[in-house]
Amino acid sequence: MKHILLFGAGKSATVLIEYLIQLAIHNQWKITIADSNAASIAEKTAGAPSSVQGLVVALESEDQRTLLIQQADLVISLMPPSLHFLIAQDCLAAGKHLLTASYADVQMQTLAPAVKQKGILFLNEMGLDPGIDHMSAMRLIHQIQAEGGVITSFLSHCGGLVAPESDNNPWHYKISWNPRNVIMAGKAGAVYLENGQEKHKTYAQLFENNHLVSVPELADYACYPNRDSLTYRSLYQLSETKTFIRTTLRHPDFCIGWRYLISLHLTDEEKVYETNNLSLQAFFAQHTERFFGKTSHLPEASTLVKQQLEYLGFSEDTLINKGLCSAADILQWVLENKLALQPHDKDMIIMVHEIVYTLHQQTHQVQSSLIVKGTNAVHTAMARTVGLPLGIAAKLVLEGAISETGLHIPTSPAFYIPVLQELEAMGICFTERNSSYKTTGISG
Q1: How many helices (H) and strands (E) does the chain have?
Q2: Per the structure, how many domains does the chain have?
Q3: Share of the chain above pLDDT 90, in %
Q4: Torsion sign across C-alpha atoms 109, 110, 115, 117
Q5: Which of 85, 106, 124 is the last residue of a domain?
Q6: Is 282 exposed, middle or buried (0-12, 13-18, 19+ CB in 10 A)?
Q7: N or C: where does the chain have the smaller number of CB atoms within 10 Å of the terminal CB?
Q8: Are residues 16 and 63 in the same domain?
Q9: Where are the beta strands (DSSP E) in 251-293?
Q10: Domain presence at residue 390
Q11: Are residues 193 and 160 in the same domain?
Q12: Final residue in a domain of this structure, among 92, 124, 156
């Protein structure tokens, strides 16, 4: 009996767990779901067969972790990146396959030689972004190259957004993934290649004068560069490409508001505020006085920004009561309350690849787009597009359809062909359209 061990039963795990339960039923496999939250495990495994086991564990406990991993054939981790490496080391020692949706960071990459020598697979970046973005882009890139095309510009955009029918706040945004990641997004700035020039943007610059991306059948969305695009240029086999940019999509108004939050230092991470018995209004006054002295010295706010701040409730007398906090901690708490998906809200995933290439001395431009909407606040598009690639890959590995070993991200046909085929059978499909060549890049 095959045995899959999943670490993590949070928001992004809902659809993955449902998929794994179906594997247990149809293939007579054993599934173990380990998390520190008993309620979350119980909710997501209600009605599951006896071959699906939920365990409440302290994931920092080496004894519990190693015992569970030793009993499994394959491990999936949806834990924060700080715990991935601990799990990865245990998987390496026990000779178990590991799948994650997180970036293959420098620490993880140090294990690559040992993973290959052990003859096991560590497949990272196997979610949505990163994950589906890699697979869909590489399929398109390889198709163009197989026809003899030479790619001169590659732009890839992705965003976890709120569906238009559930968009009812001035931020045009609701949280469908890890709230902390919303706060931290863009903090490290970005580096990318545009028209042959390497460009760097600071955190604040990311949200200035944002380029708009036209999405079929939807409004235009703003994009900002995401992390280090250049890392993927060689991995995508596009070392000669003059423009290579990976971006995050947001509503244009969100970027305007977030730029203002940065200017107010509301994403700062220094823990300086004792929030017990401190109201939001008092915090805001204390915080702005710390940086600007008087309220009259605050950066000028547009009518839109004033509406956005009002919506977040910084003028309310609601008590925070979260102990010693940073401004970022408080902002996260605010967003979790004010920008939460309501029970019947729908989130939305948008992914768009824009590729310019030359073929037979002519310039062509193709746009490949994916739009996925959630059903409600539990069965979200985010959970679906993060979880299903992991579940499908796990099944394919244990069935022998994927036989690769070593540390990988899913950029080769051995990964993307079978996974994308199954995703398409589940309705997660890209639409391609050719358009007239205009320009490339994201600068104004």
Answers
A1: 15, 18
A2: 3
A3: 82
A4: positive
A5: 124
A6: middle
A7: C
A8: yes
A9: 271-274
A10: no
A11: yes
A12: 124
Question: What tokens appear for 151 in the block?
Answer: 């790619």
* Residue 224 and residue 270 in one domain: no
Record the tokens describing residue 314, joined without a space.
């910084």
* Main-chain dihedrals φ then ψ at residue 137, nearest 5 degrees: -65, -45
Distances (CA, A) of 89 to 56, 62, 82, 94, 331: 21, 11, 12, 9, 34
Neighbours of 112 (CB within 10 A): 14
Q: What is the CATH number of the domain that holds 356?
A: 3.30.360.10
* Same-domain check for residues 221 and 171: yes
By DSSP bridging, strand 97-100 and strand 121-123 are parallel
- Is the per-residue pLDDT at 148 higher than 60? yes
* pLDDT of res. 58: 84
At 180 the pLDDT is: 87
Q: Please write the tens of the pLDDT for every residue from 23-43.
A: 999 999 999 999 999 999 999
Q: Residue 199 is encoded by which pair of tokens?
A: 């460009």
The model's pLDDT over 298-334, given as tens digits with 9 standing for 90+, comes to 888 999 999 999 999 999 999 999 999 999 999 999 9
Q: Map residue 343 onto helix, strand or coil.
A: coil
Q: Which residue matches tokens 């004894």? A: 63
Question: In Å, what is the CA distance from 355 to each residue of 50, 299, 358?
Answer: 48, 39, 10
Residue found under tokens 């701040």: 309
pLDDT tens for residues 369-415?
Answer: 999 999 999 999 999 999 999 999 999 999 999 999 999 999 999 99
Let me know: does 385 contact 349? Beta carbons within 8 Å: yes
Any idea what the CATH number is for the domain that residue 115 is in?
3.40.50.720
What pTM did the predictor assign? 0.92
